[in-house]
Specification:
It is a single chain. The chain is an alpha+beta fold. The protein folds into four domains: about 40-105, Alpha-Beta Plaits, CATH 3.30.70; about 110-245, Gyrase A, domain 2, CATH 3.30.1360.200; about 260-430 and about 440-470 and about 555-715, no CATH class; about 480-550, Alpha-Beta Plaits (2-Layer Sandwich). The protein contains 22 helices and 17 strands. It has helices spanning about 1-25, 25-30, 35, 60-75, 100-105, 120-130, 180-195, 230-240, 260-310, 320-350, 355-385, 390-425, 445-470, 475-480, 495-500, 530-540, 555-580, 585-610, 615-645, 650-660, 665-685, 690-715, and strands at about 40-45, 80-85, 90-95, 110-120, 135-140, 145-150, 155, 160-165, 175-180, 200-205, 205-210, 220-225, 250-255, 480-485, 510-515, 520-525, 545-550. The strands form three sheets. Strands 2-3-1-13-17-14-16-15 form an eight-stranded antiparallel β-sheet, sandwiched between helices. β15 and β16 form a beta hairpin. α13 packs across α18 and α19 (about 615-645) packs across α20 (about 650-660). The radius of gyration is 33 Å and the shape is elongated.
Length: about 725
């Protein structure tokens, strides 16, 4: 026995030492997501219809290669660029501060053409009158009309280098480009044959310059002039060096977070974690006394292990704002395993067992319950990871790590401590407070009242969902854009509204806070560029910074809706299969009905309070599913146990007894989880508030449904046996 304890102690020491080594110092080791450190998340669509069919199969890959070269030369650290489906590209750019410039570099097709200019006055006049001669096109350069031959005489495919240059004769920088040997020979022949003519240089359909060819250019070098700023010239040189995109691309989804908002989110996230953890520590120490101190020690190790695993480079995990929410939730749920164990130990001590035997039996009887409860939550986390976007994947990752860590600390670390102590002679009992002493409430007898209450709550919620219709949907599902700005000085709502009216966005939703310096604007259209440009012109004397920009196209919204439905469907199917295997099918059916009950009431509460469905809210609903089934499994596990023990009792009596026997655990687990979610709700900030609200409602409703819905349904669906 002592030898086994030594091996367990060595294992615990090694795991904790590894976690500390990996996580310290956390500000350097833990990789932050874009919502915490700032940056851009983009979903691009490659317009394959603009590409000949015979080369469409690799157009997206070629676009990725061009974009990767551009981003690498732009100097973004640790970018993520990956193909999604046949024609979509996902890009994450951490730490980007100049959003407009980054978008311009990524989106610019960089299709460079050279066309000869025709100076025939009669033809130009005819073109101006709308009669463009065949074989020609009318373009403008600085409001000056140019009649260009439609035939492209040279393209930018031969460019091997492009740099910014300056001349004492010009006030603007220009781009010097170098051609490969074959292109150099063709360019020399072109200039030799057209001395004295103007050669228009066209980039993405726009004439940049039209210099006169004064002599043959055999060097394979040329210049592009124009009224460029230094940044514009540098960016143009960059895209010319990296080559043209094989097809036009469109930004279907953008989520940009400014550094200032990221810092705010980190501060609020850390505050919510600390307050939630302190609340749980105080409760556990005050109620379970010495055993509570052991649980608190395990909780601290739990946080260390989570940070250590998140810091492991090969895992590639990032800590997002929903990920912080996952840590907060894990703190509450980690206590659940300890509460289950402590309540079991308390029961064994009441039955006259010695402390050592009570600890052994307590852990043995709690093990399967802990396993079942955590596996069902892991199913929801796995589904979240499969169907979620970046921040939601971060939440699912953190939740999964947290569940695994909590099982290790509860089943291994605390058991190790109790075994060491119980083997000695110092501790013969394990005193704990007990507020709920042998309850004997007739829960089953009041089930019809509970059913009526549940039906009323669901009807109220569904009515609100139907009446509000599309108003329930955030931009993740309905499409549109949200922009958040912070001005140096307060700005009146009237000024903002007037500026929006002038660009046709007067009906946009407007919200002000933080001394009227922070402005949030929501519109149904993709209007981020319009608003930014308008603010730059109207408020030039009042500097502002972009805190957040989110824009989602209609097709992305439909895709996210489909993913959300799939996530909920597969989570329910997975849980149903697991519960059927571990219990019986009617147990699974009762659990699924309770889960629908919890989801419908939580969704209804969201609508009744005027909130909106978003991807994080769907993540929260799936978490409610995981938490609720966790609660239900604990009661079901006790019912299964009591059916073997209370053979002479009626079915209704057995279920009622099981609910009462697990009531302490149900109440105190819900209380500790509520403490940390309340901290998240009040201190986590506006970004995560809807997420926390759903968890808050879901925990309360999930606790209620495990007692008044799932278990009573087993009685009503019982066939052929006495109730």
């Amino acid at each position: 026995m002592i030898k086994n304890l030594k091996w367990k102690a060595l294992l615990v020491i090694m795991v904790v030492a590894w976690a500390v080594w990996m996580a310290y110092p956390p500000q350097e080791k833990v990789k932050l997501g874009l919502d915490l450190k700032g940056g851009m998340h983009l979903v691009l669509k490659v317009d394959l219809e603009q590409v000949p069919k015979e080369v469409q199969h690799d157009a997206t890959e070629r676009a990725i290669e061009v974009i990767r070269n551009r981003i690498d030369q732009f100097g973004v650290s640790e970018p993520l660029i990956q193909k999604h489906g046949q024609d979509h590209i996902i890009i994450q750019l951490p730490g980007i501060t100049d959003r407009d410039r980054a978008l311009q570099i990524i989106k610019q097709s960089a299709h460079l053409e050279f066309k000869l200019v025709n100076r025939d006055a009669d033809k130009i006049n005819a073109a101006l009158e709308g009669k463009v001669p065949a074989g020609y096109e009318l373009k403008y350069l600085n409001n000056k009309p140019l009649l260009l031959e439609q035939k492209t005489v040279f393209t930018g495919e031969s460019i091997v280098d492009a740099r910014v240059d300056w001349s004492t004769m010009q006030i603007h920088p220009f781009i010097s480009f170098t051609l490969n040997s074959q292109g150099g020979r063709r360019f020399a022949r072109l200039t030799k044959e057209n001395i004295g003519r103007e050669l228009a240089i066209i980039l993405d359909g726009k004439v940049k310059s039209a210099p006169t060819i004064e002599s043959e250019i055999p060097s394979g070098k040329g210049q592009i002039t124009g009224r460029f700023s230094e940044d514009e010239a540098a960016d143009l040189a960059l895209v010319l060096r990296t080559g043209a995109l094989p097809a036009p691309i469109q930004v279907e989804e953008e989520r940009t977070v400014g550094a200032a908002l990221g810092v705010d989110s980190i501060k609020k996230g850390i505050s919510s974690v600390l307050v939630g953890a302190i609340a749980v520590v105080v409760f556990m120490g005050g109620y379970y006394l010495w055993a509570g101190l052991v649980a608190n020690f395990a909780l601290c190790l739990n946080l260390v292990i989570i940070l250590g695993v998140l810091s492991y480079p090969r895992l590639g995990a990032t800590l997002t704002l929903p990920g912080i929410a996952g840590i907060v939730l894990t703190i509450g749920m980690a206590v659940d395993a300890n509460v289950l164990i402590f309540e079991r130990i308390r029961e064994e001590l009441k039955n006259g067992k010695t402390l050592h035997l009570a600890i052994i039996n307590g852990y043995q009887k709690a093990f399967l319950t802990i396993l079942d409860a955590n596996v069902t939550t892991l199913i929801a986390a796995f589904i979240l990871f499969q169907f979620g976007t970046g921040p939601v994947k971060g939440f699912a990752t953190t939740l999964t790590i947290g569940i695994a860590a909590s099982m290790f600390t509860a089943l291994v670390v605390t058991r190790l401590i109790f075994d060491f102590i119980s083997l000695g002679s110092r501790l013969k009992s394990l005193p704990m407070l007990q507020f709920v002493r042998e309850p004997n409430f007739n829960f089953i007898g009041r089930r019809k009242i509970a059913y009526l209450l549940s039906v009323c709550l669901i009807i109220f919620g569904l009515t609100s969902l139907i009446l509000r219709g599309k108003q329930n949907l955030g931009i993740d599902f309905a499409g549109g854009s949200i922009q958040e700005f912070r001005f140096e000085r307060p700005v009146s709502a009237e000024q903002i509204r007037q500026a929006l009216k002038e660009i046709g966005l007067g009906n946009s939703f407007l919200q002000q806070y933080k001394d009227k310096r922070d402005i949030l604007i929501r519109s149904l259209a993709d209007s981020s560029d319009q608003i930014v440009n308008k603010f730059k012109s109207d408020f030039s004397d009042n500097n502002f910074q972009i805190l957040k920009i989110e824009q989602v196209g209609p097709s992305v919204g439909k895709n996210l809706t489909a993913q959300a439905i799939k996530a909920l469907f597969f989570a329910l199917i997975g849980i149903c299969i697991y519960v059927s295997l571990r219990f019986e099918f009617r147990f699974a059916l009762a659990a699924i009905v309770a889960l629908f009950h919890d989801v419908l009431i939580s969704a209804g509460a969201l609508s009744l309070t005027g909130r909106e469905f978003s991807v994080p809210v769907i993540a929260a609903l799936l978490t409610v599913v995981g938490y609720s089934i966790n609660d239900t499994i604990v009661v079901f596990d006790r019912i299964r146990e009591d059916l073997k023990i209370m053979r002479k009792a009626g079915y209704q009596e057995i279920i009622n007894a099981s609910i009462n026997q697990t009531l302490s655990r149900t109440l105190f687990t819900s209380l500790t989880t509520l403490l940390v979610v309340l901290a998240l709700f009040f201190l986590g900030g506006t970004v995560i508030n809807d997420f926390a609200f759903i968890l808050l409602v879901g925990i309360i409703v999930g606790t209620y449904s495990s007692v008044f819905v799932a278990s009573p349904l087993l009685v009503d669906w019982r066939r052929g046996k006495s109730k």
